[in-house]
Amino acid sequence: MNSFPSALRRAVGLLAGLALASVGPAHAAKAAPDFSLRDLNNTPQTLSQYKGKVVLVNFWATWCGPCKIEMPHLQAMYQELGARGLVVLGISADDARSASAVKPVSMSLGLKYPVLVDKDSAVVSQYNPSKTLPYNVLVDRAGDISSVYSGYNTGDEVKVKDAVLALLGQP
Fold it and tell me: Which residue segments constitute the domains of the chain, with CATH numbers given?
């Protein structure tokens, strides 16, 4: 019985140490898992084909209201910064039943960046197990995850753009 409190203290200390180790600039970069999905033209796309670019991976769904509000901001950012090395990849989390709505929604929003369909949620589950939408993963030129943004509130696009600009390097 006496060992329980010390074991508990060690566990709490270990967890606190792990939490501190994962915060700040000293933590090791985590490589973004590669994936292969088809876009709306049925062309295979992989994350690794964009190595050397800054990639914003946006997980969304046709039924997600905040996603539809956020995506025009991502399109504007893509138009403005694409020539400097930004790629936006929209990954639809719609299942096979609602996947037919992905192309019409993408067209109605005027999206010009690649939109990929993840009908079996393999990539969504790998990056975003809680399936929070929208969910953005910013990947640096080396292919490492730089930051993650969960959900959307008005103004969040400014934070994302600032992070993108930092990775692209200010002109």
Answer: 26-168 (3.40.30.10)
